[in-house]
Amino acid sequence: MLVVRRSLWIALAAFVLFLVGCPGPTFVVQQYGGPQRAPETIGTLRVNGNEPVRLLMLDHQDAAAPIVEDGRLHIELLPGRHDLIVGDARAPGVRHLPVAFQAEAGRFYRVVFVQEAGGEPHVYEVSREKDTLTRDVTLPPDSGIERVPPGRQPKPAPPGEDAGAPHEPSSPVSEADAG
To answer: How many whole angstroms separate alpha carbon 144 and alpha carbon 154?
Structure first.
């Protein structure tokens, strides 16, 4: 009986170690229309579930989706410029500046919050196999877009003259006029 119990514990321990060593699921999303393309013809944006980066918008489209902590998301992109808005799971109420990058065919990318840049997101090219950062590929901001510092709301519009409700008459109507 002791031998059977010991064998069960060893088998259970081996199974747990096997599960711990297995990476979580990778979800692949095709961001472009049409048939699937060969990996060497597209770029891939990687989002790791165990990191605080949460993709909210990609090229002005809602891209927010929950991801399991041990999983990752691969978004297949056509080569070219892509605009991102991301959130930080550690600080959900903080707004971050939009970022952009130029995707190249056959390359992998990941968004990282850079402390030296005030905690703002940057896009890095990463190695496909080990996911190590190789180079910052974040494009400079467009000069026509006002950038709001992180964590701050934009200034409200200056107060203007109130035009009133859209369906209200511009002058009061007396009961005699209305009747």
So the answer is: 15
pLDDT the model gives residue 143: 37
Say whether pLDDT at 105 is over 60: yes
pLDDT band at 124 (very low <50, low <70, confident <90, very high): very high
136's CB contacts (< 8 A; 6+ apart) are: 122, 123, 124
Interatomic CA distance for residues 68 and 112, integer angstroms:
18
Of residues 101, 99, 100, the one with CA closest to residue 118: 99
3-class SS of residue 156:
coil
CA geometry: angle 113, 118, 120, nearest 5 deg: 35
3-state secondary structure (DSSP) of residue 112: strand
| 159-177: pLDDT as tens digits | 444 444 444 444 444 445 4
Residue 80 Cα distances to 32, 42, 44, 97, 161, angstroms: 12, 10, 12, 20, 44
* CB of 138 closer than 8 Å to CB of 99: yes
